[in-house]
Amino acid sequence: MKNQIKLFAVIAAAFVVGFGVNNFATGDVPSRIAVVDVNTVVAKSSEVKALKKEQDAKMQELQTWLNTVRADVAKQQTQEGKEKLVKKYDAEFAKKQESIKNNYAKKLQAIDKSISSVIAQEAKTQGFDVVLSKGAVLYGGTDITKDITKLVK
């Protein structure tokens, strides 16, 4: 789960960096540059926390289901019966797992879009021409992480 949140942070950072590079590529010399610590914004996001909690609950439900499946398979008297049941449950498990994965990806993408939109809107509101990921900037830029974190909550 933490790896997925880190992946989201990296994707969001790439978007922010790409957004900034795009402004440079158009030939406009930026007059104001902002930086955002995307990892901090993601870590403090109530949407991300809720998604993580929901994902944990779904994984617990899946584990409970697997325990029921194991017990059902263990009740079978013959090896053939066990194999048939395992085959049936394998297909069900794959469907459940895929559904959980797709649901999570869809919601994560929506959160990413929402956070990116907040960053872009706040940058415009504060008059910044470029927003970069704080990790990509060695020196300079106005840190607007706190402002973004307040808006994302």
Strand order of the largest sheet: 2-1-3
Parts with pLDDT < 50 across at least 5 consecutive residues? none
Proper CATH architecture? 2-Layer Sandwich
CATH class: Alpha Beta
Strand content: 5-15%
Summed up, the helix count is 5
Mean of the pLDDT scores? 84
Q: Structural class of the secondary structure composition? A: mainly alpha
User: Biggest sheet, open or closed, and with what strands and sense?
Assistant: 3 strands, parallel
In CATH, the topology is named Protein Binding, DinI Protein, Chain A
Residues in helix, %: over 70%
Termini, distance in Å? 20 Å
Number of domains: 1
Question: How many β-strand runs?
Answer: 3
What's the Cα radius of gyration?
A: 22 Å
Query: What are the secondary-structure elements, in order, as H or E?
Result: HEHHHEEH
What general form does the structure show?
Answer: rod-shaped
Name given to the CATH homologous superfamily: Skp domain
Describe this structure in words.
The protein contains five helices and three strands; from the N terminus they run αβαααββα. The protein is mainly alpha-helical. It has a single domain, classed as Protein Binding, DinI Protein, Chain A. The two termini are about 20 Å apart.
